[in-house]
Anti-sigma factor antagonist
Amino acid sequence: MPEEIVKVLTFEIERDGDSAVVKCHGRFVAGTTEELYQEVKHLLPQLKLVVIDLQDLTYVDSMGLGALVRLYSTAKQTGCEFKLLHLGKQLRNVLKMTNLLSVFGQAEDHGINIA
């Protein structure tokens, strides 16, 4: 049987004034989280809003979830609003099981739409 090709995490950061959208693609798993965390962490003091767009994310493990929690915490410390957009079924279930769904503000709930 051929091995399944595992798509690693890639992301783009689109800044617009004092806000940014981080579009994630692939798998947010152990070994892929630190680069995204560091890139976004350095932007937080300069921004008022960060939206993490997860539409093209296929899987999140505990390390990925931990990175989102760390970013959320750092954003709050710097006075930056932190939102998640396009939660997939798997991540939504993980957030529900860990009682974090209500903690993370979802951008759709605040009228933020990314085309």
